[in-house]
Amino acid sequence: MTNETYSDPAAVQQTVIAPVTAMEQPARSRNGSQRRRQPVPLSIMGGSSAPKNAYILFLLVNVTLFLRPAELIPALANLPIYEVLILLSFFLSLDQIKRTVKLPMLKRQPITLCVIGVLVAVAMSHASHMYFYGIHTSTVMFLKTLMYYLLLICIIDSPQRLKGLLKTIAISSSVMILLCVIDYVGIFDFEFIKHVSDRDGVSDAGEVIRVFRMRGTGIFQDPNDLSVLIVTTGILCWYFFNDPAANPLRFLWIVSMIILGIGLIYTRSRGGLLTLGIAGMVFVLPKYGKKAAIACAVVGMAGVTILAGRQGNIDLNSGTGHDRILLWREGLSALKSPDLLFGIGEGQYSDLAGLAAHNSFVHAFTELGLFGGTFFIGCFFFAALGLYRLAQFQSKSLGRPIFRSRELERLLPYVSAILAAWCGGMMSLSRCYVVPTYMVVGVCAAYLNLAGASLARPTPLVYWNKQHVIYLIGVSMGMLIAFLIFVRIFAH
């Protein structure tokens, strides 16, 4: 790729996107001959591309993240496979990473700046309490997550690499979920998969109601966490099934989606169904408009109520739904203390309330304070803002392509749905520091890097400047106030 200088797109909302066909016509000199044009960079980050070896290793990192070879093959149990793969990929991509973390590049991609801000907030949350051991352990823990994120945005620097990463994630997670379903129904007993029997209230006779729920492997052992992964994987499977360049075996994506649907039911997760509804609305909205999205939501809610049993019974006044709101109240109450700015400390929520918050945003505000909570929200705010601007450009183009890459244009609603699904899932899960959260954030950031360069007039879609910082602070404070009001109404 070539280096390219981009201006601060503070007024990118007012930018008129010219049709790609018009922009792609080569300029001519006075004598009618074609002038030689500078090649357009594939990413707004510019610079040289990461080595192919680093890309292959990073794909293997993602396979390892989902399939856990150390669990599948007991002989590999003591081998640090994931760590070796990610370190090798990191060192091969060191030049690209050094470029990415420079201030001009961070301003061009504020999502990265926010992820680094979360790292600083993790350290400050313990430093404010003079807890030096916590500074060390928590910072090292999140540094591993940051390494994964940086590798993703540095290595995924072309539409082809992005598509390859998404296919790797879709296949790996589909296989993992298939193994979980096989184990859950009793076809084969995998020792490394352990499902869980959860308490689900009390019957009229005073007996405790329990429900058997499917869990995943490794970091997806929470059924609610697994349900969000299932929805995200389903979106990717639908994307590849609709690929115009797909081979005759694409019907296998339908088989995968059927297995995912069965798995979603076996998780018995209410949050998973809500996540599916949110993703569906966001996917339908840009294509068919608000009325279609609302209609889908109404039909979906009616169907869930009739068919989903426990999953369709969403009650904020009793049961696990109300218990989670009480957990939110415990955390938000801590913000009234001197811990308002930097929080109570990463990993301390369970000591405060007995359990995790079961809400990533409340969890981040409580443990990292206003400082860290704002950076955490910023990861998703800037991703959503960039995708929203692309959707606006599409609606104003009157059906004309706005990207040089048709694949990026086709991918927009799917990336938007994935982001919406994960944000919806985080409303009932505490996943502030884990790799899958920043995998989703990283995919959005990589997509925006590629999309900004693929526009007829290449420009960053979001930028770290005064206007955007004000927007971020406003959104962050608005979310905090909304949580406080919600808890005040429903926590009793």
Automatic annotation (TrEMBL):
Residues 23-42 are annotated as: Disordered. GO terms for cellular component: membrane. The keyword Lyase does not apply. InterPro entries: O-antigen_ligase-rel_domated, WaaL-like. The keyword Coiled coil does not apply. Pfam families: Wzy_C (PF04932). Keywords: Membrane, Transmembrane, Transmembrane helix. Residues 256-377 form the O-antigen ligase-related domain. It is a multi-pass membrane protein. This is O-antigen ligase-related domain-containing protein.
